């Protein structure tokens, strides 16, 4: 293999040697306008021993023999120009020192500079052209190469075309481009024309026997992608698309990245632009604790926080399997990050306190929560204990142990809630705002809608139903929901956390709400099936606690813009926090006896806009779990008991000088 590599280099050097000699002879011929160079033969023979080693040595030292000719591009041409310029300068300098350049026409060297560029550079580009066109045609003639039409005559489209031309093993033959921009009509890229716009795809498919369509516009809107996909389906043609625009900006668009359309593509959310400098300052060299670290949001938080080089990442998760999965994932992706996986329940106050006392986190992301609306309607007691009492425990420990910033992940279902899950998250918001009103810890809440492909969400359910042959179940023909991808939501959570100064409630821009029945139809179509024909859609009726649409704001909340276009901050109404927190204490006290109408009434006193269906959940409710009974079940008035108060102050654990006043 090594011998073969160097033998190729020897051949290339031999070719360049002949071209350099020919260039000098041709330069003399052009200078004197004659091929009879007998008079100047002696000059040429004297110059060549100087010219050849200096030219070839410069080419070699500048890496011109490391590249592959079939991939010759603009960078190679720039390197060649630099090498020829440097070597020409060296040749003239040596000839001047030795012969004072007497009898050597200086214009010959200027002509030679240009001619050698044409001959050496031309030889490389000629080989590339031969490889891309001639070899590509020969290799694909008998290989049943598939004709492809590229949608998008931009940078990504050019990169895809260049890779197809440079690699005949891909077994594709490009026929041209389509682009909806009028200025690109009839333009050519590497000899391939823009044949029309996307509406003409059906005609072009027939004319050029197209087998596949490649969508190379990663920044296209969801509506545009849906329209192109429908056009391709109408033409009976298979379509693939490129992923996120970030991969294109990095210059890494490849044919191997092309994939089948996914539902995320059709929603078409633009990628969030992050102020990475502020996030890095927020997280770098900090001990960061994430509750619910094994969940959909929590695990993505772990991965994205790890990118910003925290001092330590503390994963707090009660599911052994989920904790194992994210721990292994982080070890694989970020081996340099110190990770501490902690099995624990946010309802176990002693375990939470021990974790804070041991690791002293500076940033806490609170993502642990029950979130499935129908299940929580059937298990209201656990929903309230976990989402309210559990949040209180983590928030109070964050205050007591001097956490710099606490970021709580909330939901749009907290607004004018009709269900237990939503109202439990609203009370959790109030707890954070209440404790944060008198704490040195900066409490920040981030409220947003549904995330795609999260555990228990509608998209995995639809996928399972489609795989089984249907039917796909939708609760109501007019139900709408906001959606964003898990990575985008986590990026904006980190951005909001970095921006927060304390006691803010941030709202993420969820874009336009999506009609769930349209989502179901799109997912059926993406599976290559026909909605209502191959797969039926049935409407099952709204479930307990479910609304037709979700909101992000209360009536009393006004929003103001922030430095980030996708993040707003809500200015909440003035609230008597001590009184509200006392009412939350009373709610927790009532929960010790189980769920009842008295509990619903106390919830309404805390959250007056709560409107449960038919008075609230009616299912039988078990007694609260053992770790929530008796003394210590109420966190808000409790003090940390795992270490003596004086000992905590002496050891520096108790960073905040004053306690929360309720």
What would the average pLDDT be, to the nearest integer?
Answer: 78
Radius of gyration over alpha carbons? 34 Å
> Which consecutive residue ranges, at least 5 long each, have pLDDT under 50?
245-251, 618-662
Count of strand segments: 21
Tell me the structural class.
alpha/beta
Task: Indicate the CATH architecture of the largest domain.
Answer: 3-Layer(aba) Sandwich
The CATH superfamily name of the largest domain is NAD(P)-binding Rossmann-like Domain
Tell me, what is the CATH class of the largest domain? Alpha Beta
> How many helix segments?
22
Summarize the structure in words:
The chain is α/β, with parallel strands linked by helices. The chain has three domains: about 1-135, no CATH class; about 145-260, Rossmann fold, CATH 3.40.50; about 275-450 and about 485-510 and about 550-630, NAD(P)-binding Rossmann-like Domain (Rossmann fold). About 45% of the residues lie in helices and about 15% in strands. The chain has 22 helices and 21 strands. It has a nine-stranded mixed β-sheet, with helices on both faces. A six-stranded mixed β-sheet has the order 3-4-2-1-5-6, with helices on both faces. Strands 13-16 form a two-stranded parallel ribbon. Helix 10 packs across helix 18 and helix 11 runs parallel beside helix 12. It starts with a helix and ends in an 11-residue tail after the last helix.
């Amino acid at each position: 293999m090594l011998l073969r590599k160097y033998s190729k280099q020897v051949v290339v050097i031999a070719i360049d040697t002949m071209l350099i000699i020919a260039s000098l002879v041709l330069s003399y011929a052009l200078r004197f306008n004659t091929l009879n160079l007998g008079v100047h033969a002696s000059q040429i023979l004297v110059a060549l021993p100087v010219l050849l080693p200096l030219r070839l040595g410069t080419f070699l030292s500048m890496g011109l023999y490391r590249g592959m000719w079939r991939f010759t591009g603009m960078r190679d041409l720039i390197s060649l120009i630099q090498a020829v310029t440097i070597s020409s300068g060296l040749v003239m300098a040596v000839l001047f020192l030795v012969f004072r350049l007497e009898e050597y026409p200086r214009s010959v060297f200027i002509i030679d500079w240009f001619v050698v560029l044409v001959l050496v550079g031309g030889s490389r580009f000629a080989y590339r052209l031969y490889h891309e066109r001639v070899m590509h045609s020969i290799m694909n003639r008998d290989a049943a190469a598939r004709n492809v039409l590229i949608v998008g005559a931009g940078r990504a489209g050019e990169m895809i075309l260049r890779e197809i031309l440079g690699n005949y093993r891909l077994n594709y033959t490009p026929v041209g481009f389509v682009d909806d921009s009028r200025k690109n009509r009839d333009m050519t890229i590497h000899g391939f024309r823009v044949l029309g716009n996307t509406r003409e795809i059906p005609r072009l498919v027939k004319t050029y026997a197209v087998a596949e369509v490649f969508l190379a516009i990663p920044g296209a809107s969801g509506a545009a992608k849906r329209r192109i996909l429908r056009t391709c389906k109408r033409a009976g043609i298979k379509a693939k698309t490129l992923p996120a625009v970030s991969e294109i900006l990095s210059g890494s668009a490849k044919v191997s990245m092309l994939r089948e359309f996914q539902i995320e593509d059709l929603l078409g959310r633009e990628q969030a632009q992050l102020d990475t400098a502020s996030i890095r300052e927020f997280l770098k060299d900090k001990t960061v604790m994430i509750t619910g670290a094994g969940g959909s949001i929590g695990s993505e938080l772990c991965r994205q926080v790890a990118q910003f080089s925290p001092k330590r990442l503390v994963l707090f998760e009660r599911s052994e399997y989920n904790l194992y999965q994210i721990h292994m994932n982080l070890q694989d992706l970020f081996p340099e990050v110190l990770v501490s996986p902690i099995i624990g329940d946010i309802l176990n106050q002693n375990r939470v306190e021990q974790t804070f006392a041991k690791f002293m986190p500076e940033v806490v992301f609170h993502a642990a929560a029950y979130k499935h609306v129908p299940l929580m309607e059937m298990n209201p007691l656990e929903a309230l204990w976990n989402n309210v009492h559990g949040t209180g425990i983590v928030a109070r420990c964050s205050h007591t142990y001097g956490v710099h910033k606490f970021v709580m992940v909330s939901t749009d279902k907290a607004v004018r809630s009709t269900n237990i899950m939503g109202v439990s998250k609203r009370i959790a918001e109030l707890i954070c705002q209440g404790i944060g009103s008198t704490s040195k810890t900066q409490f920040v809440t981030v409220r947003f809608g549904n995330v795609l492909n999260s555990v228990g969400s509608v998209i995995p359910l639809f996928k399972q139903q489609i795989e089984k042959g249907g039917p796909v179940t939708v609760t109501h023909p007019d139900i709408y929901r906001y959606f964003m991808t898990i990575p985008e939501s986590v990026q904006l959570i980190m951005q909001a956390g970095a921006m927060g100064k304390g006691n803010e409630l941030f709202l993420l821009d969820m874009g336009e709400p999506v009609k769930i029945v349209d989502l179901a139809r799109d997912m059926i179509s993406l599976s290559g099936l026909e909605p209502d024909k191959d797969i039926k859609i049935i409407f099952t009726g709204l479930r307990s606690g479910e609304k037709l649409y979700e909101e992000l704001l209360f009536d009393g909340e006004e929003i103001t813009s922030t430095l980030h276009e996708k993040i707003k901050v809500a200015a909440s109404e003035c609230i008597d926090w001590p009184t509200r927190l006392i009412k939350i204490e009373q709610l927790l006290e009532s929960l010790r006896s189980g769920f009842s109408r008295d509990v619903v009434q106390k919830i309404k006193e805390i959250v007056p806009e709560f409107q449960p269906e038919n008075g609230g959940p009616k299912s039988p409710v078990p007694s609260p779990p053992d770790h929530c009974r008796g003394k210590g079940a109420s966190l808000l008035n409790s003090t940390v008991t795992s270490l003596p108060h004086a000992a905590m102050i002496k050891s520096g654990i108790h960073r905040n000088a004053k306690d929360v006043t309720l």
